[in-house]
Amino acid sequence: MPEPDFSAQEPWIFRRTPVPHYYGDIVRQLFVAAAAFLIVGAPFYATDLAAELLFDVLGAFLLVFLAAFTSPSARTILVADAIVAGVGMIIFEYWALVNYQTTAIVAVILRQAIALIFLFAFYFAGKTVRGLSPVADEDARQREEAFRDERVAEEAQLDAIDIEQAKADRPYGMREMFEDQD
In this structure, are 28 and 100 located in the same domain? Predict the structure, then answer.
């Protein structure tokens, strides 16, 4: 992952502190896929569609809402992503295993697929939340300070080169005059 540019020339809207181990984009895609499976697969895996449809639609709505608001700067949403992914995995896996002998194989496969999507979303959301720990925040702050210190050192080196170049460019008579002052 390339180091971010913290320079003042970059517009403020694009400047942000990097979050180590940010996998929110993957979680977002997995949540949208799970929401699509919930809505499209509902007629195939629901045992009582009239009773379960409201939960499927609300679940899909919640998943898409969280996917839309997932951002490296929204820590609460990142934690909510992990919780929802974990709960979704448990619910759908339990539902698939408890009813595997009494329901159609298509229903079991769809429930397993949704549980698997939630499993991967939980993994990546957990990695992201782990990256938000105070230790990771301190590491990110230290990397940012080191990056800034490196830039300051480079700018000081360039300034020294400019000063030497200016001394070399002085007219001949002025060089001797300023030699004693250097």
Answer: yes
